Amino acid sequence: MTSTELPAKPRSATTRLIVTALLLVIWVALYAALAPASQWLVLQLPLDPASGAAQALAFFIYDTPKVLLLLTLIVFAMGVVRSFFSPERTRALLAGRRQGVGNVAAATLGIVTPFCSCSAVPLFIGFVSAGVPLGVTFSFLIAAPLVNEVALGLLLALLGWKVALLYLLLGLAVAIISGAIIGRLHLEGWLEDWVRALRTEAAPLATAQLSIADRIDAGVEAVRDIVGRVWPWIIGGIAVGAGIHGWVPEGLLAGIMGREAWWSVPAAVAIGIPMYSNAAGIIPVVEALLGKGAALGTTLAFMMSVTALSAPEMVILRKVLTVRLIAVFVAVVGLGILVVGYLFNFLFG
Question: What is the pTM (predicted TM-score) of this model?
Answer without folding.
Answer: 0.62
